[in-house]
């Protein structure tokens, strides 16, 4: 097994992200997001759960054919550990140059007793058989023991060993209900590295939910202990409190790369990026996902929230004007914002307005643009400076809430 040079970013916005109330996307919207995820540079797109519905199947299949090119990302479909699920997933990803089947079965006592009504040895046998079955369709098979965060570690080691022996090339460790703390999750990954005899034949991946707001912190501890694939979503959308947020993980690994370098297990230049992500596409991707899913981004959200680079207090403003590093740990340009957010005013024309909205990820129709432009002029008359955040509010108020 070739070990990855960088941390692999597996985006599940279109699968786990879409699994949150109200975030349903149609096929064209999914395709548009997948294209943007490819521009962002994610390594793998989990494009959906092909067996879930004909619409999901079609979306995965279209994304596989259109975005899953030779140079593009790997396209993955989720599948329960069942023949029919796996066969449908295989069918959906077959148009991709590189396709992955991600199959899963729960391993925690509570899931075995109440949900699956199966014994531990039955679960091991199913995992082994289904990984081997998935392997008949593609070499790239990922296996997840669902609810690993609450599973008995000794049982987990056995399941993982058998899944790898059956051909899993990635083993993903989900903290399905966001229950673990960073030190516990780090220790879980360490335990897996030390106790699963064939672990070197697979990549260790992590997947986590934000029920206690700890998903990103958990992942960073996992990286320190050997995880090399991170499963995340744009803006952290997903089941319940959501998934680990891609933008937070990527920027933490970027801003603190010198801190994380020693954990990669190979010599790394101090300025070398730890992921393949083009960070300058982050803001645009965040805007696109927010506007297509209708899930607003909270203003104080790290990295992509409206206040993430805004300075309100006099002391902070004074400091930043003297030297930005006093109160900024990263440059706004790094995520694709203009450094100077104060670019449009009452003298600006429609073209500048349209161009900036496009840069921010808003694709408006002519009618919407006209409406937003009228509002922009009204606001510009009252305010000296119109920031990106004002523009976003104008679009949200005038168009998306209409
Ligand atoms: O949260 C979870 O356990 C999942 C699995 C299907 C990986 O989404
Ligand atoms: Zn999940």
UniProtKB/TrEMBL annotation:
Its cofactor is Mn(2+). GO terms for biological process: L-leucine biosynthetic process. Its EC number is 2.3.3.13. One of its GO terms (cellular component) is cytoplasm. Mn(2+) binds at residues 16, 207, 209, 243. Residues 7-268 form the Pyruvate carboxyltransferase domain. This protein is a Fe-Mo-cofactor biosynthetic component. Belongs to the alpha-IPM synthase/homocitrate synthase family. LeuA type 1 subfamily. Homodimer. This is 2-isopropylmalate synthase. It comes from Anabaenopsis circularis NIES-21. The lineage of its organism: Bacteria, Bacillati, Cyanobacteriota, Cyanophyceae, Nostocales. The gene is leuA. The chain holds residues 1 to 402 of 530 of the full protein.
